[in-house]
Amino acid sequence: MNFLRFRNQFFELACFTPDQVYAWQPDFDRNNFYRWLQKGLLVRLRKGLYAFPEYAKKPGYQWYFANRMYRPSYISLFSALALYGLIPESVVQILSVTSLKTAGFVNPLGEFYYKTVREDLMFGFEPKALPDGKYFQIARPEKALLDLLYLYPEYNSEEQMLQLRLDEDFLKQALDKRLLAEYASFFRSKTLQARILRLLKAYGV
Fold it and tell me: Which 8-state DSSP code applies to residue 59?
């Protein structure tokens, strides 16, 4: 198989599975994957999912691949808060929420980790478009905060909440407190409700 022909067929997909390749070419030699990986022409995102290394330099594609490596999932927690500018630090690891078991993948494009919530808590996210028209799913700021307080119980006291260094202007001006309360009700957790109140009090919201 000529790699250029293969690349022309699949490059626009960004990532693909062997099943997609076999649907195109039923007699495709699986050894091509190994050879092209060795030459750096492909990267393995996880077992059964490949991508082209050029996408490592395309803005936003780490988020796009994170969604597709483990489904269903959406970007949340510190990663979403950093994207919204709610925390000052950039986050090297890509953190997502899923209804599947907790998992992690490390590949040439980054470190991807997935935290588990109940299936009924898989809500509060929306698509964010990339420049080329593709998109990824990311938690709204209110859901990202709730996911964080729910999955990281060590943030419990007001002092610990302040250690998050959340952007006070965002909390006071852009955070939808009505939506925050609505989303929180679906967690059915008095402990989480108490943490939310402590966080808002800590930041004077």
Answer: T
| Side chain identity, residue 89 | E
Q: What is the pLDDT along the chain (205 residues), one digit of tens a residue?
A: 799 999 999 999 999 999 999 999 999 999 999 999 999 999 999 999 999 999 998 999 999 999 999 999 999 999 999 999 999 877 789 999 999 999 999 999 999 999 999 999 999 999 999 998 999 999 999 999 999 999 999 999 999 999 999 999 999 999 999 999 999 999 999 999 999 999 999 999 8
How far, in Å, CA of 128 to CA of 126, rounded? 7
Token pair of 99 as six digits:
């209804």
SS3 of 150-167: HHCCCCCCHHHHHCCCCC
Evaluate the CA torsion angle 44, 128, 82, 201 in order and state its sign: negative
* Non-local CB neighbours of 121 within 8 Å, separated by 6+ positions: 97, 99, 150, 186, 187
> Which distant-in-sequence residues (6+ apart) come within 8 Å of 67 by Cβ?
73, 74, 75, 96, 136, 137
The C-alpha atoms of residue 21 and residue 19 are separated, in whole angstroms, by 5
Q: In the 8-state DSSP scheme, what is residue 140?
A: -
Nearest to 17, CA basis, from 57, 74, 81, 71: 71
